[in-house]
Amino acid sequence: MAIIESINDDYNSNDTPIKMGRRNIGALHNNIVKDKELTAKVLALGLVARDMGKTKPQTPRELEDRFDDYLEECVNYGLPPTVEGLVLISGYARTTFWEIAQGLHHPELANTIKRAKDYIQNYDATMATMNKVNAAVYCFRAKNFYDMKDVQEIKAGPIEDATKPTNATDILNALPETPISSASEEEQKKD
Predict the structure, then answer these.
(1) Phi-psi region of 18 (alpha: psi -120 to 50; beta: other; left: phi over 0)
(2) Among 111, 113, 115, 159, which residue carries the largest CB count within 10 Å?
(3) Is 0.85 surpassed by the pTM of this model?
(4) 3-class SS at 82?
(5) Between the CA of residue 33 and those of 16, 48, 135, 141, what are the distances in Å?
């Protein structure tokens, strides 16, 4: 695995990063990676996804085949599929990808993108219900990628209460029978 060797070469004996090669893309500066093997897998899968997306798909079938290939690569690398990975393999910029999903551009590809996102959403939900993904991470992803939102139901309307007073006398009678004292009376009691 050339990527792992490359990452290992980018650290000196004190586990501090040295200048990264290849145009310095992804330089880690002061952020030291603790799990170099996992980092290598993630970066390698990212490169594979980027290479898959070098051209834009012309048909929904071509895009679907790319998604299938991406999912196979995720299995091969032992990494979860991500919506970000779908964007990489699509060959489109992120904003264009979202616009396609909404049917604003290339409407023939919109359904394919939605199905792929549904697949990853199912994966994320399954992992969350099995406590394999932090619930906060799942909530973040669900709100940002799957259009989910917190909903609070508020009902507005008349109060249905049998003890609701109907006139001024009933309101006065419903008040508690505690004496109302002024501030000066309370000060006198303290003295």
Answers:
(1) beta
(2) 113
(3) no
(4) coil
(5) 9, 21, 24, 23
